[in-house]
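Next comes this protein:
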Amino acid sequence: MTKYRTHNCLELSAKNSGENVILSGWVHKKRDHGNLLFLDLRDNFGTTQCIVEKDKPFFKQLEKIQLESVIKVNGIVSKRTSETINKDLKTGEIEIKIESFEILGTCEELPLPVFSDQEYAEEIRLKYRFLDLRRKKIHSNILLRSKVISFIRDEMNKNGFVEFQTPILTSSSPEGARDFIVPSRLNPGKFYALPQAPQQFKQLVMISGFDKYFQIAPCFRDEDARADRSPGEFYQLDLEMSFVEQEDVFTVVENLLIKVFKKFSNKKILYERFPRIPYEESIFKYGTDKPDLRNPLEIFDLTSVFNRNDVKFEIFKKLVKSGAIVRSIVTKKTDKKPRSFFDNLDKWAKYQGASGLAYFTFEKNETIDAKGPVGKFFSTDALNEIMKITGAEIGDSIFFSCDKKENVLQLMSSARDKIAKELDLIDENTFAFCWIVDYPMYETDKVTGKIKFSHNPFSMPQGDEKDLDFENPLSIKAYQYDIVCNGIELSSGAIRNHKPNLMYKLFEIAGYKKSDVDQKFRGMINALSFGAPPHGGIAPGLDRIIMLLANEKNIREVTLFPMNQNAQDLMMNAPSEISEKQLKELGLTIKKK
């Protein structure tokens, strides 16, 4: 008990009837019935209905009070009659007859409603985020976030992991995204970088002799906003383990995520042992390395069919001869679907920038035929080959696209999701996890044509060092892995390269001289030379985990104080200009356009 309350706004029930209590909170709603004023009082925990009779001297004052004012009330707990019990409210059996009250904090006219979760302009919501956070849904999301993080921290401690905090001010490193740069006053002309992840530091923790590390780590990347990615900063469960192989990391993370998702959601988990899908297989079957396994549709390669003489679909045949590929998706028993279903998907594909989605449906008359705009271009033998490749049956339909590999994969990955939603194939009450494994160590830069790291430059390549084909680097696979859930990437991780000589070789392929590595990764490469254990780790994104648990589509709905899509904090007016004095101290000048 404090001078402000004897109970919170969720604690009182019929057993407290007749008690004199003190509650404090925000005026959530008011309902004026003439001789009686109903007032819902809300705090962090819940809501309690209070009533004031007209003969009370403060009736008029409460009648005029602005919603979201903060007040303290003193009153008597009264049991409601059976017909007035509110079953939707945990305190719905009682109400408080106010005997006196005190205004603790006044409220001006509200720029957005707090008593409902209706959609509101994002700019207003972010500018007045402190009001937005009072609203029921987002308030619950943020409390969920706290509970999930506390639970994860407890589980990590139980599993023998030790929590450390790694530096925020560090050096810039090429980890795939733009760094946020911080000028140094004491070292003029030099700059710190905010860490994109604690990658090097957590490896240094392992080299320091600690066995299992974790951290609820803030990460900073100067990236554009997306629905599942905040601009600026995000948080991850960063962990690293010594003397482990890939499966050891998988076991720890699978067990943790199963516990988290079972505790904080009622949805079913499709696979409690996450499927391991090689990267190349994922790209081939789903068109992406972030597949939604709730979706049963798969993608098939039909390129070879268009080399047949009895296929007369000349547009695709010419494209295939010039190096294009054909990918397809089969939909089961869609022969009774109206023509509009197929045409709308074709229009959708064109809206995505593609030339469209060709389609037909398998039917059987005297022979196997294809019904649809392009069906006439395929012989019975060609249709039989397509059915053999795709597993299609009579009554099934097929959608296909022909283009350069990159364009086709992008379209068919999106088409797979689009078609599944149109056919209501996705069970929204399910979580489907998987591991994407066997990532290529390198890829070709689309702009420069040069070889670059595809994922994480500190990963261990697969196979014996003496057997690695350094002359053909695109053939080298790495012990790199991602966790994906419902089509959302939750995390990337890897078994680390702990051999300095091998690291020099791998970086040389990506265009780094030995001196470059020594300069950019001085702490890491130096430490690896003094006895480094085999180690590996991963860093599941907490924001995305909580987004899934809260059933939200946008990461801002589970972030306390997010920025807008232009990486601006509208509430605190950041980023902002700094004074000439500050610039002078840092040895900086602003070059105006």
In short: DSSP finds 16 helices and 24 strands in the chain. The chain has a mean pLDDT of 94.
